[in-house]
Amino acid sequence: MSNTNKLKIFNDPIYGFITIPNPLIYDLIQHPYFQRLRRISQMGMSYLVYPGANHTRFHHALGCLHIMQKAVGVLRFKNVQISEAEENALYIAILLHDIGHGPFSHAMEHSIVEDVHHEEISLLFMTKLNKEFDGKLDLAIQIFKGEYHRKFMLQLISSQLDMDRMDYLKRDSFYSGVEEGKINSDRLIQMMNVVDDVLVIEEKGIYSVEKFLMARRLMYWQVYLHKTSLVAELILTKTLKRAKELYQKGVAIECSKPLYFFVENKISFADFNDDVLNEFAKLDDTDIIGAIKNWQYHEDFTLSTLSKIIINRDLLKIKMGEDKFSSEEIQDLIEQFSSENNVSLQEAKYFVFKGKIKNQAYSKVAEPIRILQKDGSLEDVAILSDQLSLKALSKQVTKYFLCYPKQLLKS
Amino acid sequence: MSNTNKLKIFNDPIYGFITIPNPLIYDLIQHPYFQRLRRISQMGMSYLVYPGANHTRFHHALGCLHIMQKAVGVLRFKNVQISEAEENALYIAILLHDIGHGPFSHAMEHSIVEDVHHEEISLLFMTKLNKEFDGKLDLAIQIFKGEYHRKFMLQLISSQLDMDRMDYLKRDSFYSGVEEGKINSDRLIQMMNVVDDVLVIEEKGIYSVEKFLMARRLMYWQVYLHKTSLVAELILTKTLKRAKELYQKGVAIECSKPLYFFVENKISFADFNDDVLNEFAKLDDTDIIGAIKNWQYHEDFTLSTLSKIIINRDLLKIKMGEDKFSSEEIQDLIEQFSSENNVSLQEAKYFVFKGKIKNQAYSKVAEPIRILQKDGSLEDVAILSDQLSLKALSKQVTKYFLCYPKQLLKS
Amino acid sequence: MSNTNKLKIFNDPIYGFITIPNPLIYDLIQHPYFQRLRRISQMGMSYLVYPGANHTRFHHALGCLHIMQKAVGVLRFKNVQISEAEENALYIAILLHDIGHGPFSHAMEHSIVEDVHHEEISLLFMTKLNKEFDGKLDLAIQIFKGEYHRKFMLQLISSQLDMDRMDYLKRDSFYSGVEEGKINSDRLIQMMNVVDDVLVIEEKGIYSVEKFLMARRLMYWQVYLHKTSLVAELILTKTLKRAKELYQKGVAIECSKPLYFFVENKISFADFNDDVLNEFAKLDDTDIIGAIKNWQYHEDFTLSTLSKIIINRDLLKIKMGEDKFSSEEIQDLIEQFSSENNVSLQEAKYFVFKGKIKNQAYSKVAEPIRILQKDGSLEDVAILSDQLSLKALSKQVTKYFLCYPKQLLKS
Amino acid sequence: MSNTNKLKIFNDPIYGFITIPNPLIYDLIQHPYFQRLRRISQMGMSYLVYPGANHTRFHHALGCLHIMQKAVGVLRFKNVQISEAEENALYIAILLHDIGHGPFSHAMEHSIVEDVHHEEISLLFMTKLNKEFDGKLDLAIQIFKGEYHRKFMLQLISSQLDMDRMDYLKRDSFYSGVEEGKINSDRLIQMMNVVDDVLVIEEKGIYSVEKFLMARRLMYWQVYLHKTSLVAELILTKTLKRAKELYQKGVAIECSKPLYFFVENKISFADFNDDVLNEFAKLDDTDIIGAIKNWQYHEDFTLSTLSKIIINRDLLKIKMGEDKFSSEEIQDLIEQFSSENNVSLQEAKYFVFKGKIKNQAYSKVAEPIRILQKDGSLEDVAILSDQLSLKALSKQVTKYFLCYPKQLLKS
Fold first, then answer.
1. Which residues constitute the domain of residue A326?
2. Do C328 and C354 belong to one domain?
3. Where is the HD domain (chains A, B, C, D) (predicted)?
4. Measured between CA atoms, how close is C356 to chain D, in angstroms?
5. Residues B49 and B96 in one domain
């Protein structure tokens, strides 16, 4: 294919059109590692709550690429020097920043693989692609690893106000139909500048930053940690755990070959050699959902029941609150379930369990979002805000939950 | 015209279609008092900053009518009893709640008329229309005055989360193109309920309420009190004041007859008899802008200069800050302007002046926005919010400003 | 679950909120047959061209339910009598009208199952559900089969301007980001009426009907029959065919059990007893995509190559035109492919093939879209249109295509 | 003001942000001639039908500037050479293409001024500004007059698919809330190219062109020539005519000075010297509406009645049809009105009158929209279209109308 044919355009309901800036980017998008992201949902089980939330990590990565192009344009307009090589490295780094995600990452990481974080896998993929592409990803990798001397470039890719967060907030609220999460990425980008190698927001953009942080907080509690999404993800985790447990006990487990590889082997990050990475690259949502559909008919009560619960969206109940649930309360429920269903207490714990979730919209420990004041000085947005709201946003909120079958507690 | 022809539909870029629910509402809309709102801009001088902000009080009133219909539907679905008469009264009251607005109300109220507030004039208009319509507005007026026994109905019309605020935030952000002000009125209305005659928001709507208050705060600081809109309005006020002052000194002032009536007479609320109301009903934006266009050529330096400043959008500079500006600084500028332009110190004060503005997004003194918790109890949203942000929103913020011509300070 | 808990709301980025009108509808949505639609993409392989097009048949069915509620409201407002039982039957019928769709229906119907159309399967599902729900679907089924005496009700569900087409045009253009396909369903519904038991559009809606038909035509050629979507679907069809062929030759084929059932058995519509229907109800996109992922590693060159082509989106080339491609041209390509890849001519035909597609935006043979003129008479929109455009839209357009691997023709 | 402060941004609800590309453009926008466009409505009396249609010629001109920047970007990306001087000239020419519009141009041109077309006045303004700006508008004027050797540049400014039409269709449909008029300007611009100095649309954009022409046709019949807008404009024309007639008979007419100038003098294009241009530059919507408000109280029955009709939106009835109305029918109505209101037949003709309007969505006489086919050849879109719809669009449609007071015909 000639290079001019690689200057392609993707339709995007959010930005209108996304332009591929050069043939190398095109080739990276065409690579099977990247195409695989077409089959990985961005929001995991959330489609069970928000039926529109079927968008993929593929589309999110393209969206990030798009707004990075905007950001480069704005910064250059403001006389921030960005060479063509740097520009391209920024595009590559943002395009690939999430390539290490597997299907239902969170559930996977808490069940089948151990101590594996998608950022690390992203780096492994980048390194592998760098070999295939004769070192053309060198600079992108340097930036991604934080080793490049111009620190603001990393901030565009990974910080509290990066292209990743901007696109996912916009995209997730768009597809889920949750208006409250919509942010004005156009304006935020227009307000960006670089001062002393630090990415800053000009003072008149402070309300947009506040709005961005509020939207982020709202999306966490209303969408990402929506109790139904949460319970669905927890059940998925339990299901995968049960499958692995059964396998380890010698019970036959059917699933696709790439998933079987991870059920069969105990894989943590240290084990990710080329072979493991290649198996990982074969995994996507169809492996997980396909397996669970099949497990509905497995002879193990726990595995089949959990699987049916997911496939038919006949989920466990979940209670959430600000206080811990008492051990007694849970123990009672476990015993009740155990006796009603004639399963061991151990198995009952797959259906009755508690836990906690935390979130903070803005971290004071992480690098701050810096506001460029009119006098030229920089200040953390949380300090500058003319009221307490942003300081409040940096408070970590913890919620406790308890999951159990609907049938219980009725009696 | 037959009554069936009065079941009209208005196009609205925000809601799609606005339906006129019955012939009485149609006749009220057709009344010259109401048609006049087509010629009164909702956002005053803001179009000088946001070129799209040319929407009218007419359209806003229709928008309020539309979402009131939604609210009645949702409340009835939740088994809140609302009779047909009450329903209709709600529509009338919300339709006419702003009918007392004159052109550029704020500027008018600080220059030409005295102690006149648009809510009071709205009531005068309603009373007058009630006579024309044989008492059909009785119940609407009772609700509007807070005299009806079902208090939640007033809350739908005038409270910290009423149809008025919902529509104007949505509409103003839509037309100005300020994405950050957009609120999800659909969801807020879906979350409404009535408990013990109090309008409440169900608990799962708490984030939407927070978002609504944040949006309101943002719209105040970024749009309504935008420094350029503010300075334009202040200059308009000064211009009208100057005209009145000149008239009182015996200088001839040309303008439309209805405006002349208010320049000529000293009118405060107590003077609003039927004749005054009728003159007031003739005023709209064209009277003010038409006069100022004309005054550009007046022989008085102050009046003509101020008028040109507005018409050519060649505005004064404005500095805003959190501290008061010193009297010395201002006095210096006044003297400098006086000497450079060969005008009296008194006249110079039309071009160099200071002041302050205040805003609070949520008032703790006013009736609170109440959240209906899952256990059935009600709580103020500011208390319930799991963080400090809403408490912070109720803090009153004051900003100080100083206005002066561009040419000054350069030297 | 109590019935009040079944009055649920779904978020929808298109309509805002979709309300479930009654507990029976809720229970139908909860049924596994319907939940399965969450895993069936509305637009098949189109996501390979439009990365946002991942919405499901589940969401489309909910969208249809929503606009049917609007339509019932508008018709009642215009004094069309619709009883509560009829209303409910309309909701059930539109909700379930597409429940018979399998994954990638078109490709399935041309490869694995024979003479099976989704409408017929929808009816089988409805009949089955009717038993489970004690006859509560009787009236819906009557309407769906065209057996109810009030014919306009069927027109709301299935005609050239039904709720189905309105929602899918709106939804498909929304998710694919193809602005040109957007239609104003709100206005079309507002313009609906019923005259002599015929669904009509009032005269002033004629431009909206024209726009609707233009949008439909555009969506066909630009989106549904986009050459890349088309080639992807054709390759999918070939892949499934090859799998079945291999099975019939005794070669082992791995795939999920429900898919295996259809590979193994020769199923046409006549065979759809309860057991077959139950197997069919287990099928969704994951079965197809999962199988193809697996078949990438099959020993058969044809099956594995076709599978890789899909998974890595490394598609065949496609040429489209208004004239047939010559048999010689194709024969040459087949021979070239055969010799270059050392496969039989028979196998080469899986990679080099031709065909044709047809579309007409408006059918004159089918029941027309009728316009209610001001004098009360009805007329076909195609006759009434003040120009020829609609007559033109009823012309059937045929295009011919030729598919072949990129590598060919280069030499 | 320093030049960097002139790199301003305008909010636009349609495009998000509109960037001012350089200080000269900024200075032109700041000029009183251009600021005046803030007070001239883009859609004349249409706000009486579409209450959101209050947007201005100022905003439209900025919108054109914005999409011209997009077009220049796309063409350069496709290797069309455009120098910086040419780029800037394109921006100036599109910014000022409509600067010659007066208030309610159409009504003015058919009543008070004679043989004056806004394009010609635009050129007068440009020439005047060119002097003020030391010849910096030379190239823009050359392009605007069609004298520049690169003809495609004029096509960007004035042709059947220019930036003007794209913005006004998009903007007018946006503000009026008429979804059907929305066009995909982004895609149309993406499909632009220049071949042999001709602006072309690449073949795959053909459906977007069709959609654009359909939208244009729809906007004409549904919005611009909506019968209520039409009747309002006709009454406005009659009102202005009556005022001029009365003046000529020696009756005193009150209005603003600039309007008086045109009532007093018989001005046709040949009279537009600098003084006339300066008076013209003082006119805006407030002069017209202000006068009509005042004329409501004029002693002349005809003038005051027409004025009230407009201000209170109590419009004449209008019948439209495809056949001419008979002279007898009209004569009867005129006589009836004359006798009922005790006015002369001559005066009655201000209230009872007929006429015709024509429109064609696409002209075959004007320069065609050319499609760049895959083989490199160019073809008129109307010829290329695979159906007749576009050929049909070029048919001129004529409609006849008859206006008369509501009270008539009732008896």
1. 316-360+400-411
2. yes
3. 57-169
4. 16
5. yes
The CATH number given to whatever domain includes residue B317 is 1.20.1250.30
pLDDT of A265-316, one tens digit each?
A: 988 888 899 999 999 999 999 999 999 999 999 999 999 999 999 999 999 9
Backbone φ, ψ for residue C192 (5° rounding): -75, 150
- The residue of D179, D189, D220 whose CB has the most chain C CBs within 10 angstroms, and thus the best one to mutate to test that interface, is D179
Residue of B nearest to D27 (CA): B314
- Non-local (6+) Cβ contacts of D50 within 8 A are B11, D43, D175, D176, D177, D178, D223
| C286 vs A contacts (CB less than 8 Å) | 285-286, 289-290, 293
Contacts of residue D47 in chain B, CB cutoff 8 Å?
Answer: 38, 56
Kindly state whether residues D108 and D165 are assigned to the same domain: yes
**Position B365 in a domain:** no
* D95 and D117 assigned to the same domain: yes
In this structure, are B293 and B180 located in the same domain? Answer: no
Cβ within 8 Å, pair B388-A395: yes
Instruction: Look at residue D388 and tell me whether its pLDDT is greater than 50.
Output: no
Q: Which residues from D are below 8 Å from B222, CB to CB?
A: none
How far D302 CA sits from the closest chain C CA (Å)?
A: 32
**What is the chain B residue with the closest CA to C21?**
B77
Number of domains in chain A: 2
The 10s digit of each residue's pLDDT in C17-75 is: 999 999 999 999 999 999 999 999 999 999 999 999 999 999 999 999 999 999 999 99
- Note whether D173 and D196 are same-domain residues: yes
| DSSP H helices in A78-182 | 84-96, 105-109, 118-132, 138-144, 151-157, 163-176
In a domain, A83, yes or no: yes
Q: What is the pLDDT of residue A411?
A: 40
Chains in touch with B (3+ beta-carbon pairs under 8 Å) read A, C, D
**Cβ neighbours of residue C325 under 8 Å, at least 6 residues apart?**
C319, C354, C400, C401, C402
The CATH code of the domain that includes B83 is: 1.10.3210.10
Q: Are C63 and C17 in contact (CB under 8 A)?
A: no
Is A54 close to C58, i.e. CB distance below 8 A?
no
Instruction: Name the pLDDT band for D1 (thresholds 50, 70, 90).
Output: very low
The one-letter amino acid code at C70 reads: K
Q: Residue B335 domain-assigned? A: yes
In chain D, which residues touch A (CB < 8 A)? 7, 9, 16-17, 77, 186-187, 190
DSSP letters along B121-158, please? HHHHHHHHHHHHTTTTTHHHHHHHTT-SS-THHHHHHS
CA distances, B370 to each of B157, B193, B206, B379, D80 (Å): 16, 10, 10, 5, 62
Q: Which of C239, C34, C57 is nearest to C137 (CA)?
A: C34
Residue A4 has pLDDT above 70, yes or no: no
Residue A388 pLDDT > 70: no
Q: Are residues A174 and A150 in the same domain?
A: yes
Helix (H) or strand (E) holding B14: none
Contact C186 B17 (CB under 8 A): yes
- Nearest chain C residue to D222 by CA distance is C207
CA distance D219 to chain C (A): 9
- The reply to whether A347 and A380 lie within a common domain is no
Model confidence pLDDT, tens digit, residues B282-329: 999 999 999 999 999 999 999 999 999 999 999 999 999 889 999 998
Measured at the CA of D66, the angle between CA D61 and CA D70, to 5 degrees, comes to 145
Task: Name the residue facing A52 among C12, C176, C313 (closest C-beta).
Answer: C12
Residue B398 within any structural domain of the chain:
no
Mutate to test the interface with A, among D5, D17, D20, D78 (most CBs of A within 10 A): D17
> How close B254 gets to chain D, by Cα (Å)?
10
Taking an 8 Å cut-off on Cβ atoms, the answer to whether A11 and C314 are in contact is no
